[in-house]
Design goal:
Distance between the termini of chain A: 35 Å
Radius of gyration of chain A: 17 Å
Helix content of chain A: 25-40%
Pfam family, one (chains A, B): FGase
Largest sheet of chain A: 7 strands, mixed
Oligomer: homodimer
Number of strands of chain A: 11
GO molecular function, one term (chains A, B): hydrolase activity
Structural class of chain A: alpha/beta
CATH superfamily of chain A: Zn-dependent exopeptidases
CATH class of chain A: Alpha Beta
Keywords (chains A, B): Hydrolase
Number of domains of chain A: 1
Organism (chains A, B): Pseudotabrizicola algicola
Protein name (chains A, B): N-formylglutamate amidohydrolase
Chain lengths: ~260, ~260
């Protein structure tokens, strides 16, 4: 029973809330929905389907990992181009006017009121719901480890990327280093720490906001999206990554 | 207009929401209310009126500062003995069985469900509402500095305390050091950094949860409660502290 509730037309999606595993999965870029009142932001259908709008494959991979790890999963209800849930409302790229090579017409010249409306409609319901999941678990004495799931493009600004699996940390690098070590030991994935970008690029907002204040072990995972282009490929990737995460979890718990 | 709302019988109290000043004041121990369903927790009326239940004078001082600084103020609706809003739900002292020399009968042997219920009834509505205030201000591009207001007892475990005004920091010490410097220069208060306790005692949860993720300058103020024992004394203390805070704010903004 909860005496309070967070109501929004764009609430966070929470799956497997009562799963018994220690890992809480988060997928901030799960969706390429462009719901009213914002609509398509002037983007073509091809743009709406592309990486600029979301992380293709990340939700399929998150769900496949959730089943294997008995993990709860919190994911986004709308495109990151309406509001990028992995950015604070003080950041221009929370509602980007331009992303990689794409202009975002519907994000040009937003007023302060536009930014406030999206913050209240999308950012706050998502992060307050995620905060509620974490607080509930802590109140019940449950070990909680935060892992965010992202995907990245094989080619960025015309340059191919050779890394297949990137693991990014913020202030606390325990889990990220354990994951890289387990992946390099147990898989043939081209795995690297803080690739294809790092906390210095401002990509660790969710970790800072949700995990660091409670001292929760945490990491951000980035999978190259050509490796999880279909749901079958995402399942196969989850078969490879689930043992890596379990091994890293055990390593961190031992310390 | 907000598409979401946080509903609770014990919502955070928000005053002067639209105040123009940069400082956002927070008073987590403002209240010695013992509402149903918890009631008095088996405490005497004297205990319910004493420092163990709340920070006497802190709300009066917070309101007096809010007027002088044109600041918004978020404060607690219930006693810290039901839930200490400056502690995460993983902390035993969020719902303390014993505090200083007092046993808290109603907090003995709480079940996980009891802890969850209080977390959902008090902790989450308070901190998600405070988060909403901060996020709204950031979306609007408003400079935001977080200052929490507390009071402490002149005598603790039988030992008198000579410090009158303590300023406590967490990871970011900019504002706290500027306040101490301004207080030592501009007042005759016995002022000290990280007295009568410090972040190492686990007292900076609100700063960590709400200010640090956004890089907001922040500090926790502790005033000896015999100096703010009446509303007139709190007003007089605000006359002394408001210029100190304004001066410190200017010093931090210059950096």
């Amino acid at each position: 029973m909860s005496l309070h509730s967070i109501q929004s037309d764009f609430a966070a999606h929470v799956e497997n809330r009562d799963a018994a595993g220690a890992i809480l999965l988060v997928c901030e870029h799960a969706s390429n929905a462009f719901p009213a009142p914002w609509g398509s932001l002037g983007l073509t259908e091809a743009q709406q389907a592309a990486h600029v709008a979301w992380d293709p494959g990340a939700l399929d991979l998150s769900r496949a990992l959730a089943r294997r790890l008995d993990a709860a999963l919190v994911h986004a209800p709308a495109s990151r181009l309406i509001y990028d849930l992995n950015r604070g409302p003080d950041r221009a790229d929370a509602m980007a006017e331009r992303s990689e090579v794409h202009d975002i017409p519907g994000n040009k010249g937003l007023s302060a009121e536009d930014r406030l409306h999206r913050t209240e409609a999308l950012y706050l319901p998502f992060h307050n719901a995620l905060h509620a999941e974490i607080a509930r678990r802590l109140a019940l004495g449950r070990v909680t480890v935060l892992v965010t799931i992202h995907s990245f493009t094989p080619v960025y600004h015309g340059r191919p990327r050779s890394v297949e699996f990137g693991v990014i940390h913020d202030a606390d690098d325990r889990l990220a280093r354990a994951i890289v070590e387990a992946a390099q030991r147990g898989t043939d994935l081209a795995c690297a720490l803080n690739e294809p970008y790092s906390a210095a690029d401002g990509v660790t907002h969710t970790l800072r906001l949700q995990a660091t204040p409670y001292g929760l072990a945490n990491a951000m995972l980035e999978i190259r999206n050509d490796l999880i282009a279909t749901s079958e490929m995402a399942e196969a990737m989850a078969d490879r990554l689930a043992p890596v995460l379990q091994s890293a979890l055990a390593a961190v718990a031992e310390v």
